[in-house]
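Exercise 3.2. Students should predict the tertiary structure of the chain below and write it as structure tokens, then compare their answer with the key that follows.

Predict this chain's 3D structure.
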Amino acid sequence: MRRSRSWAGWGATPAAFVLLVLFGGALVETLSTSLDDGSGAWRKVLESDELVESLALTWRVALTSTVLAAALGLLVALLVRRVSATLGGRVTRALLQVPLTMPHMVVAIAALMLLSQSGLVSRLLGGAPLPPLVNDGFGVGIVFTSVWKEAPFIAVLVLLSLRGETLKLEEVAQNLGASSWRVLREVTLPAALPALRTGSSARPAVRDDD
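Answer key:
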């Protein structure tokens, strides 16, 4: 048992070694090239206004898409639970699996085809001009694409976390006279929080290179 514990933290070592062999030389070459003129290139990048704007856009898009995906995923999961025994509930569960199998690049291209000024949405509206949703200053298109991809993933995680013991606790609370709102607030949401945290900080198991 002691030996197995000592090796537990080395599981990623083979993959890390392969990545180091494949990309280590390129990283070293990139760093050495960037330092050919001393630290001038780095100083120029760090002092540029574009860097600050890029960082602000990155954080804005990341926080907005994470909050929206988590909220939408939780809402969808709670709604699906209510109709889980119906045909609509089963169909919705199946539809939630579809974005998980789609590479991020495919989702991005689909969003571009939908949201661009000459995209499908604009055509369905009779060629009416849309507000800029692609290449806009706030990153609306990026947020939409991220939410579209990640919200179903979070919904599936929440649905998995609300089975078994959580169902029993909800039934016990209801039998003891707790209102639906109190069961949601004190049983359901606390049980869903770990899945929300995991889904908000992780990506689906199906990666772009799968």
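Discussion points: Residues 1-47 form one domain. The radius of gyration is 23 Å.
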